[in-house]
Amino acid sequence: MVKKPWSSLHVTGVYVLMVLLCCCVDYSLCEKKIKTYKLTRGNFSVTFTNYGAVMTSLLLPDRHGKQDDVVLGFDSLDSYKNDTTYFGAIVGRVANRIGGAQFKLNGQLYKTSPNDGYNTLHGGTKGFSDVIWSVQSYVPTSHITFKYNSFDGEEGFPGNVTVKVTYMIGKNILGVKMEAKPLNKPTPINLALHTYWNLHGHNSGDILSHKIQLLADKITPVDDTLIPTGEITSINGTPYDFLEPREIGSRIHELPGGYDINYIIDGPIGKHLRKTAVVTEDITGRKMELWTNQPGVQFYTSNMLKRVVGKGKAVYGKYGGLCLETQGFPDSVNHKNFPTQIVSPGETYLHVMLFRFTAH
């Protein structure tokens, strides 16, 4: 049987056809053991584990053909169980923060698990990044699909939800497709991929000399606990302005700690993907471009990393990686002027990301 996990994508006016064949074996029937899985296309490869549906490595050639792993992570799968950084994980049921660890839906107050002071972060104490996913489909030269069944009341969220994430590999392209279907109750859903990128190599130091362009001219400002105030403000002339490419470190000293803010991506929200970000690293010549169908992207410069021992005994410190987490707006459940994250039975949440890697 042929399945099409992702048929076509619209990328800046060009349709990128990604028809990928899935095998008919349902791996979800197998015993849930924590394992690693690798996708390879030529000299481009990505590795995952079914614990948290985590991306554990991404090997990419530089302009001279030298390969480096450009995502932060751990050597040991056990290390991911004790991880507080969310390295490479799929986070949810609601990514980012929920203020006061509560929200109202259809007149009912729901209290979620507070794990960031009085707030809920990335789904709560045991979110989707801390559960074992089943593998529904796996073709090493094509894709892998992870599946998780979230239960009613999990971390305080209402209703049963079936969740899938499919990672798809092409020639220097990585696609990510996140889907979720509520089964019996309306519920907020906002999934995100929490990969930390360092295009010079995961063990090469900080990312302050990376150049970034963010195709977004507004942000959702936050209070001292990183909960949005509800305002939407222009980035024009501020340290948040990356409409033209510049080094991440060029104005970071003007901010308390670094970048950790939701940008509102330019252009209409619809079925087509919008170009979101371009990241370049001059020494290796590597370039990463990102498209998504989501309204926002959290730009985070790993401000809270403190001497985390990672792969190959590399020590990751502050500014050791950058995150580009496409998403709905943080704390949308408590701000009526933000795009809704409520998904009802019969509806499907769909979140698509497309990464393209080159080196010049």
UniProtKB/TrEMBL annotation:
Which Pfam families is this protein grouped with?
Answer: Aldose_epim (PF01263)
The record ties this protein, via InterPro entries, to: Aldose_1-epimerase (IPR015443), Aldose_1/G6P_1-epimerase (IPR008183), Gal_mutarotase_sf_dom (IPR011013), Galactose_mutarotase-like (IPR047215), GH-type_carb-bd (IPR014718)
| SUPFAM superfamilies for the chain | Galactose mutarotase-like
Leading EC class:
isomerase
List all membrane-crossing ranges: 12-30
Q: Does the keyword Membrane apply?
A: yes
The protein's name: Aldose 1-epimerase
- Under which EC number(s) is this enzyme classified? 5.1.3.3
Pathway(s) of this molecule: Carbohydrate metabolism; hexose metabolism
Q: What domain of life is recorded for the organism? A: Eukaryota
Reaction(s) the record says it catalyses: alpha-D-glucose = beta-D-glucose
Gene assigned in the entry: LOC104711245
